[in-house]
Amino acid sequence: MVDLDLCYTPATELIRKYRDGELSPVEVVQNSLARIDEVNPTLNCFCFTYPEEALAQAEAAEQALKSKQARPLEGVPMAIKDFTPTRGKVTTRGSKLLQDWVPERDPVLVQRLQDAGAIMLGKTTTPEFATSGFTDSPLWGITRNPWNPARTPGGSSGGSGAAVASGCVPFAEGTDMGGSVRIPAALCGVVGHKPSIGRIPMDIIDTAYCSISHFGPLARTIDDATLFLDTVQGEHFSDIQSLPRCDLPLPVPADVKGLKFALDVTLGFCAVDPAVEANLRNTADALRDAGAIVEEVDLGWDSKIVDMWYATWGIFMAAYYAQLTDVPLDENRERMSEGLVRLIEAGRKIDAVTARRWEFERTRYWHKLGVVLDNHHALLCPTMAITAPAVEMRDWDFAGFDEHGMLICMDMTSPFNYTAQCPVLSVPSGFADGLPTATQIVARRWDDALAMRIGAAVEKALPWAQHRPEL
User: Is 242 a catalytic residue?
Assistant: First the structure.
């Protein structure tokens, strides 16, 4: 029998109970593996699991705890996204083109988690090359939302979001180039953090010069997300943009008295579901009640920022495909997802001068946000414009403008990858028709501790960990 209370015990609490002798890592890992077996046939959140290896590591963790030689995350179960290479274990990136790839090294993030004693139970599903807000790949098929299996968990870290929300692991790793941590966090009702660029060394995409790519945690609590971030942060030679360590207090303080926040429901251009807006405003009210000042602002952005981000992502994927294989795209087209092919083809049409000119445009968007953040500690807005759509839908089903001239969109995340130095935290804001909604907290540049502090205040006022999907 699966112990659901144990499934939903935060990592910080597991660590305390391990050290007090109240729990055994073997017991916890066995329970987590049983939970995966229970929910994975429905959710398809894991494409690989490693039960024998995980249990052996749990037994070693138990001995380390008994001998008082435990590491900080000793015996804590976790999951790694199948986009992220893992040494000696098949990593497919959701693609038939890589279905037999066995990487020879672990990235810095995986090394640091494992060196701290965390136990990888498996790899979580992702759309092909992490290029969609829907987790559905040619290799692994559809991944589903724990709150309603007819709905998507989002993407591209959808497997990680579903695994955390369903109690398989307390936290999981994700990658975020346009919202791929925050989208599934929002749609699955958990915490998702896009750190300041360089906070976690990014060493898995063959370039150290990408300006939109991040690792980030998905977790059920702010403290767990912070624990994950603190474990893996810090500069490393492999990423020239990587940052020195910053102070991330644990437990995270929840005091926001006297802080000043800006609120923008639409970012100037997004059509937002009324229930999403209502829950966002409820979050703002909770922060006011906690002593913060919240002012409504007009950021003054427009939908061109999304168009530019999509084209930038297309250029990256076109270059990545050329780096990956010399097989012409037409020869692989039938083996690849339609969305990936569309993205590569779009990227190939853009000339270098046009792409360079976007940097001037991108700067103007930053200046508008920069003025807001110069006068406020953070910007509050929705993470998603809607609740989780049906699993059969696709990214391109969201296009055009409504009768008010607002963009019909699913996520409101990608513009903030264009302001990558600003940490962005997604926290649950409530429910609409039984599906989670979320608030996006855009903090000042490089201040990840501030983002977590604001998230902790929301968590204290509107506790979400008590809610569990019925599976």
Answer: no
